[in-house]
Amino acid sequence: MQDSPTDNTTEPAGTSGNWWQRLAGGLKRSSSALGGAIAHVVAKRQLDGATIDEIEDELVRADLGAETAARIATELRYGRFSTSITPDEIKAVVAAEVEKVLTPVARPLAVDAAKKPFVVLVAGVNGSGKTTTIGKLAAKFRAEGHSVMLAAGDTFRAAAIDQLKIWAQRTGADFVAREAGADAAGLAFDAVAAAKERGIDILLVDTAGRLQNRTELMGELEKIVRVIKKVDASAPHAVLLVLDATVGQNALSQVEIFQKAVGVTGLAMTKLDGTARGGILVAIAAKFGVPVHFVGVGESVDDLAPFSARDFSRAMVGLDS
After folding, report:
1. Closest Cα partner for 126 from 260, 254, 267, 307?
2. What pTM does this model have?
3. What's residue 212's pLDDT?
């Protein structure tokens, strides 16, 4: 279930309070699980081959992926480390290697002012937090001074249309919708045309939740892209895939299928506060190299912020910023 809009939607994401504290708190389950496992292994023996193998197994269990886990194990095996290395020293090695994987994908969502409207198609499976993420992005863009339009392309669910309308009202964004059950591609066509006519800066298009194993639903998403291009051949200018961190390894197949269907240009990872499986973002980065634009660690509008490789890697293992 997606969370409801909050009242403080006029503040830009990440500016209220201390974002590092939010991120570290949101990744507490992940850092406790991984950090606890590392401390447990190191407490049993010195840093020898068996210890490193066990640490590698724990990294794989933390969803970092076999490739990244092997890189970290190699660094521990051949680096100049004392056999009496502490858990925090190992965490620092893990954070440094994770940061290397994440740095190339830590890229902001760059809005091209020459594209007006700059069309962002937002996709993802049911329950990933698409509609809520759109609302938070609307608040962010409005706070930056952009005019924004929200298009209720999830025409399968009346509740999604209503939810997006509330976000539009609270953020001062324009809103385009049709009745529940209407053709989503037609709605997207109308939205791009209306945004052009009104001189809107950014158009955020919601879509129905797609199960990545339902080919007919993915086909409908492809149709939306084709129809949008009839109004603006260069659009959509960004395809944002919203991923729910709590699904763990299943997120890998979601990226793969959506990438093939609609050419995902960036990711937003939500619900990191609800799982110990935050490491899946590392596995996704290593496998696909898709830019990560935003991470979400809670329900407040301030709990969605631009992705930082260093902050994420250190918070994930429980180190200070």
Report:
1. 254
2. 0.91
3. 54
